[in-house]
Design goal:
Keywords: Membrane, Transmembrane, Transmembrane helix, Transport. The chain is mostly helical and 417 residues long. 67% of the residues lie in helices and 3% in strands. The chain folds into 2 domains: 106 residues, no CATH class; 265 residues, no CATH class. The chain has a two-stranded antiparallel sheet with strand order 1-2. Helix 7 packs across helix 11 and helix 9 runs parallel beside helix 12.
């Protein structure tokens, strides 16, 4: 029935590993003969367990069987196996004893550096196997027909869309919170011709970043800052589902793109909801379309960052970072970069600085005539330039695109072990 047979002693040490046809011949050479009408594998297992003792004429103890197999194949015998067998090196033979002594000398001469290097090599090989398993396509030996990436993308798109429809109440609450945020910030923000409404836009950047960062915290859209607990719970379930489906062979790219595609609905709609109230109570000089364009780019940027935080960090840590990061970066971006300094240099690479600069520029372009001198002075103090409007939008879009790439890399790499 089987071609090969492997017998293991206690501790997982090999006693025999070879052809089934030669197993009785091997043990007969050791003086262990199988009685009539007895299944040979069962008899050998009983001997290894110590239930049946070999004949005294064989002179072999069941503890010596791993040692006999090593000597039969010419393997070097470790000293611990030799001691456990209770056999003297002189009674085994010259060549075997020499192999034992050489193995003992090698083990004694092995240094701490050698052990450390071996551990490093082992860990590197494990990481290599892990990366190859995640990124390289293994050969399917089951001959099953797996759906392509595009077909899986269409399936996940429908599934995620149905999930969002089931969350209609959460969506409505999110829109209501955005309306209230627009009313509050539009009322509290003071519009000043000297600063071109920069303070009001600073509140907008903080509010939108905080809201939208946690909004897409769990690789899903439409979760607000006030419903963060529900977002974390639903995302934990999503993670578990993804780990199981990924192990069964689904496309991670199709899974990620489907969620990202559905989330674009909120990226487009929620800035409209926020600005509808903010414009009514604040009435800045800039046009609705310009502010909407900036907010869409800002939301696209922070959602990509939220993806990476939600995937890589634990729910509590990701929640903390998603709240602190936009606030700190907005305060850094509010520093006067014209004066230089460390914070001013860092602020030039913050998405909050790009968003605030784009907001202020859209408002400043509406000032003309006698306000030109005031406009130039205020923009120079902040380190802003009128021609940087389009580059700021491009920087935010690129940040969102790169952060999505990082999030997908984390999704594929940092799975549950």
């Amino acid at each position: 029935m089987f071609d090969d047979l492997i017998l293991l002693a206690k501790g997982g040490i090999t006693v025999y590993h070879g052809s089934v046809k030669k197993v009785e011949e091997y043990f007969a050479g050791l003086g262990i003969n199988v009685p009539e009408r007895v299944n040979p594998p069962d008899y050998f297992i009983d001997i290894l367990e110590g239930i049946v003792k070999p004949a005294t004429s064989s002179g072999v103890n069941y503890k010596e069987l791993p040692l006999r197999w090593m000597l039969h194949n010419g393997y070097p015998v470790p000293p611990d196996i030799l001691d456990a067998s209770g056999v003297a090196a002189s009674s085994i033979g010259g060549n075997s004893a020499q192999g034992i002594n050489s193995g003992a000398a090698e083990s004694d001469g092995q240094s701490f550096a050698g052990d450390l290097w071996t551990d490093v090599k082992t860990n590197v090989e494990l990481k290599k196997d892990h990366i190859q398993h995640n990124f390289l396509k293994s050969k399917d030996l089951s001959n099953r027909r797996t759906a392509g990436v595009f077909q899986q993308y269409r399936y996940f798109l429908g599934r995620v869309g149905k999930q969002r429809l089931r969350e209609a109440r959460i969506q409505a609450v999110d829109f209501l919170i955005l309306l209230i945020a627009g009313i509050c910030l539009g009322t509290l923000a003071k519009v000043s011709d000297e600063t071109f409404g920069a303070s009001g836009y600073m509140y907008t950047v903080i509010a939108v970043c905080k809201f939208e960062t946690l909004l897409f915290f769990a690789l899903s859209c439409s979760l607000s800052l006030l419903s963060k607990i529900a977002a974390l719970r639903s995302f934990s379930l999503d993670k578990l589902h993804y780990w199981r489906e990924s192990a069964s062979g689904i496309s991670s790219l199709a899974y990620f793109l489907s969620k990202n595609t559905i989330d674009h609905f909120s990226t487009i709609v929620k800035p409209v909801v926020y600005l509808s109230m903010f414009y009514f109570f604040n009435n800045p000089r800039s046009s609705f379309w310009d502010n909407y364009l900036v907010l869409v780019c800002l939301v696209y940027c922070v959602t990509g960052i939220a993806y990476a935080l939600a995937i890589y960090l634990e729910p509590g840590q990701a929640q903390l970072w998603s709240v602190l990061l936009p606030v700190v970066l907005t305060l850094v971006a509010n520093q006067d970069t014209a004066e230089g300094g460390f914070l001013g240099t860092i602020g030039n690479f913050c998405y909050t600085k790009w968003a605030m600069e784009a907001f202020v520029i859209t408002n400043a372009e509406r000032y003309s005539g006698v306000w030109l001198i005031q406009r130039c002075g205020s923009l120079q103090k902040k380190g802003f330039q009128v021609r940087h409007f389009i580059p700021c939008l491009v920087y935010m879009l690129l940040t969102g695109l790169v952060s999505r790439g990082v999030a997908f890399f984390c999704l594929v790499t940092f799975k549950k072990k």
